[in-house]
């Protein structure tokens, strides 16, 4: 019996597979497509995802394939500079096409020993007290747990019968990568003019002589999985820009809408949902892929703890209680952004007001932290303002904090020199550093980098070690 089967080999599934393998969990990833998807559905990574990569020692390989865009924040297409002190060591957006992100995460998972099977589609499932049975077209598999990372049309979610309430798509866009004949300067000028009133329109260089095109569709189709034709793209380009830019030779074409839905439950027994299987929303703010990676980062260590036998009671349930509100908040802010991008007089008036409000640093910071996910705070009860938040990377006497988190374990950062993780040393590392740049005597971090405790007394520390890392050994 496999420990965990993951349905879906996108960024969420591969991130989860890698997190599980860090803790020695047997992982099988089932991906129905025989070849990696080459469609650029996401263009970059936000701060929290960048920090996650840094925490696992992956950032350098991503930086080699991406481009940093520092010092800017965007909400509903409203560009404002970031606050002077953004609260992160990575104050930039990492521009990197999703196929590259997918490939790098898949390579990482494979390096750690994940079994990745392409051309394998889950078609049925059932579960009992001991595990989950997964049906493929020609075989049946057994695992202790199953995680559905199989996208917005998730088969796992549908088979579970989990509700997916929300709103259907009201608007649809066409997109693709293709060649153009219009000179670059002329094209840029036309696009800039169109975007003054239509923020959902874009034509720009995508590399290798291709241009990425995004243009509103004429109407919402019944089946968004059917790609548009080149003629349809040309027609819509002419409708919005007065020219089709001479587009030709598309590498790929697709369509997407603004459907907004969230799974009612992220866990049903031994089966979990993560990424787009748990939530879909408009792509405004570029949060979708990032949200899925962050789901996986939250779930991975908890599921590994259960499989390895030290998980405290209710640790697995905390995946839903922590991540469902985060997903709901993303749905909420993308709904708001959608309204602000309407060309109607009312929403445009609100947009002008929000634009003015974003000149206030407190407003700009609040919205920036929402989009980048560094403002996420899990409810761990009352305590220091750090409690429940992720801790930014800080300097240590030797090196820096995130360099100590590559193994995916808990971490006690102790400035007092008096505290101990004895009894939990198989799960939690300890760093004594009187000069650590953190404004509390000591801080206990979960494997996902969120602050589980601050203080200076061993009794309080032991209580939180038991809460998050189970019973002590010995």
Overview features:
474 residues, 12 helices, 3 domains, Glutaredoxin, 4-stranded antiparallel beta sheet, 31% helix, Alpha-Beta Plaits, FAD/NAD(P)-binding domain, 8-stranded mixed beta sheet, single chain, alpha+beta, globular
Explain this structure to me?
By secondary structure, the protein is an alpha+beta fold. The protein folds into 3 domains: 2-166 and 261-372, FAD/NAD(P)-binding domain (3-Layer(bba) Sandwich), CATH 3.50.50; 172-257, Alpha-Beta Plaits (2-Layer Sandwich), CATH 3.30.70.2450; 401-469, Glutaredoxin, CATH 3.40.30.120. Helices cover 31% and strands 23% of the residues. It has 12 helices and 24 strands. It has helices at 11-21, 47-55, 59-63, 98-111, 155-160, 184-194, 230-241, 288-307, 317-340, 345-357, 361-372, 458-469; strands spanning 2-7, 27-31, 44-45, 67-70, 73-75, 78-80, 92-95, 115-118, 124-127, 132-135, 140-148, 166-167, 172-179, 202-207, 210-216, 248-257, 260-262, 267-268, 271-273, 279-280, 410-414, 428-432, 442-445, 451-455. The strands form 6 sheets. Strands 1, 2, 8, 9, 10, 11, 18 and 19 form an 8-stranded mixed beta sheet that branches. Strand 10 and strand 11 form a beta hairpin. Helix 8 packs antiparallel against helix 9. The two termini are 30 Å apart. 42% of the residues are buried. The mean pLDDT is 94. GO terms for molecular function: monooxygenase activity. Its cofactor is FAD.
């Amino acid at each position: 019996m496999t420990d965990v089967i993951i349905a879906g080999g996108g960024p969420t599934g591969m991130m989860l597979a890698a997190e599980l393998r860090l803790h020695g969990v047997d992982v099988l990833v089932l991906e129905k497509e025989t070849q990696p998807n080459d469609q650029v559905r996401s263009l970059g990574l936000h701060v929290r995802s960048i920090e996650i990569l840094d925490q696992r020692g992956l950032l350098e390989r991503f930086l080699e394939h991406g481009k940093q865009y520092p010092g800017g924040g965007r909400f509903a297409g409203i560009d404002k500079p970031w606050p002077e002190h953004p609260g992160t060591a990575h104050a930039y957006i990492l521009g990197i096409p999703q196929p590259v992100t997918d490939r790098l995460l898949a390579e990482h998972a494979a390096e750690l020993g994940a079994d990745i099977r392409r051309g394998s589609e889950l078609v049925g499932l059932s579960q009992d007290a001991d595990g989950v049975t997964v049906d493929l077209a020609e075989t049946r598999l057994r695992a202790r747990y199953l995680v559905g990372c199989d996208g917005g049309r998730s088969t796992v979610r549908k088979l579970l019968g989990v509700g997916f309430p929300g709103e259907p798509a009201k608007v649809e866009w066409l997109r693709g990568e293709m060649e153009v004949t219009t000179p670059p300067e002329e094209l840029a000028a036309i696009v800039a003019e169109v975007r003054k009133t239509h923020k959902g329109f874009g034509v720009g260089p995508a590399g290798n002589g291709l241009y990425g095109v995004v243009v509103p569709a004429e109407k919402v189709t019944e089946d968004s999985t059917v790609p548009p034709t080149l003629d349809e793209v040309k027609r819509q380009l002419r409708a919005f820009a007065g020219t089709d830019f001479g587009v030709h030779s598309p590498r790929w074409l697709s369509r997407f809408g603004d459907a907004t839905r969230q799974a009612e439950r992220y866990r049903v027994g031994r089966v979990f949902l993560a990424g787009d299987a748990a939530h879909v929303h408009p792509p405004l703010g570029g949060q979708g892929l990032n949200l899925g990676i962050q789901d996986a980062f939250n779930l991975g260590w908890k599921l590994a703890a259960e499989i390895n036998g030290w998980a405290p009671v209710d640790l697995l349930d905390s995946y839903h209680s922590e991540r469902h509100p985060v997903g709901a908040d993303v749905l909420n802010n993308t709904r708001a952004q959608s309204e602000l991008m309407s060309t109607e007089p009312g929403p445009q008036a609100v947009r002008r007001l929000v634009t003015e409000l974003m000149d206030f640093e407190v407003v700009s910071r609040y919205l920036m932290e929402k989009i980048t996910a560094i403002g996420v705070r899990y409810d761990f009860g009352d305590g220091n303002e750090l409690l429940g938040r992720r801790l930014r990377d800080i300097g240590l006497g030797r090196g820096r904090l995130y360099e100590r988190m590559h193994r995916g374990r808990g971490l006690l950062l102790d400035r007092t020199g008096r505290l101990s993780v004895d009894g939990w040393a198989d799960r939690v590392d300890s760093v004594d550093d009187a000069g650590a740049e953190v404004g509390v005597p000591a801080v206990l971090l979960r494997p996902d980098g969120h602050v589980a405790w601050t203080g200076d007394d061993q009794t309080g520390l032991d209580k939180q070690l038991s809460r998050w890392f189970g019973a002590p050994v010995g």
